[in-house]
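Handout, section B. The chain below has 565 residues.
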Amino acid sequence: MSRRKRVDEEFKELPVCAIDYVGRIARMIGYRRKVRREVQAELLGHFTDAHRDCASPEERQARAERLVVEFGDPHLMAILCRRAKKRGRPLWLKAIGGVRMAVFLLVAAVGSYTAWFVSGRPVVTDEYLVKLNQLGQTPLTALDNAWPHYEKACALFVEADGELKKMSAFRSHGPLRFQGMAAMNESEREDLVAGVAENEPAWAHYETASRCRTYRKEFRYDRTQPRVPCLIEVTSNPSLVQLRRLSEVGIWKSRLAAEEGRLDDALDNCLAVARTGAHFQSSPCIVNQLVGISLGAMAQLELPRIVADYDLSATVLRDVQIALAGLYVAQCPLANFEGEHLAVLDSVQHSFTKGGLGGGHMIPGQYTGLVTTALELPRGRRTRTFQRVLLWPIDVGASMIHARRDRTTAKINEVHDEIDKRSRLSPYERRARNMGGWEELAASMSKHRYGLVRILLPNESRVSELAFRLRAGHEATLTVLALKRYSMETGVHPPDLQSLVDAGYARSIPADPYSGGPLIYKRVGDEFLLYSVGPDFVDDGGTRGADDDGQTKAWADNGDMVFWP
């Protein structure tokens, strides 16, 4: 027989009013079932003791009604009983009860906070796209802007076929490795000529674009998308690959023209590539700047090769020098990270809520997305399962640890101020100050508190070094042209570079980014030597650097970067 039935059996002789009264008190206690049963049994026992000397049912009924009145309000009675039971508990039981309540409240608080945390949504407040389009903005007409022509050129570009790419000359097309058109057999030359001819329509637009006064690509959001995309997505430019390949076509056009004796056309094609490089260097986006640096270096290496292989008059050299000097308003620009700064800030507002503790928290899912992108996992059900099951708990924890939105934004501004200062320092100045690169900046931030900032940190030192190399190459090419003109018109090479400037052949002495001084100039018999000490910071006397295969390499880690001969 159950305990409840035993209780009911024991007190079944009591008047109904007493049983109902005690039952109401038991239900109102609002405590554990065991305690309610104990209170019910104690009260019923009290009523039973009070009725032992009652002879008749009428007397029992009257006694019960009187006791109910004496006990008073059942709700108040329930409260008093509950308090008495709590006071009467042993200490260890009170401790267990307190711990259980604390655990319950903690779990409830953590659960509520986690649910609130995970359900956060990004708050996009700043129009960084507008700010990006305003960077370096100058008034221009449609005819002044090169981008529409570049876009048409990329659309018309015809990719080289597989056979052409297999040619040894095509694989070693760089100016430092190119062996000349004579090294190609007739069949290869015919294939090359046909490939260049296929791209004549594209090249016509390319050359027209290069002659435009400025370059500006207006970035726009795709308003048909369900969400506002990040600036990094908007500024991606898939046309850059075709543009670089078309620039290589221009170099081949230059070589073919030079072989046929059309030296003016050869130089014009090289200058078109150089002008295109200057256009893309003016972009606020780092990827565009890197393409511009690549194209500028391509033209800088090809022009001296033409000067060395073919007889050019002093007048032609002067015209080329003037054209090259006119590529930039002042000096060849250094790396500009303003656009990258805006892109990182925009990534934060797409990854954080706004308001609450710390000015907004990171929304879980950012690390997961970056990890799967870095691992280049294929999109599909398995990848989504991998994200949700294995990475999601880690992602939630990382997001909770990460600094809040306002602190993250402040750290980004602080880091990019430092990047802006460092980008103006040459590799030699960095070395003199014992200044590290990307790793040093990353190490200065907690990988847990500022993980997203570290992931989005640009490789400033590498990009800045490439920009300094291009500046050195640009100034070296101008100096080579000036030196050739000087020797043609005076019959001798100048004793030093200052004499070249004093005679009006050059505007300034070219700086070596790896020595802290000027590029090294030496007269060697009837020729001259012009070089930089290179990335190893050691003067090897004009010995060229090479790669692991022994092939001459520009800006190799060993040897010097020789601009002439």
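Note. The mean pLDDT is 78. Compare this with the example in section A.
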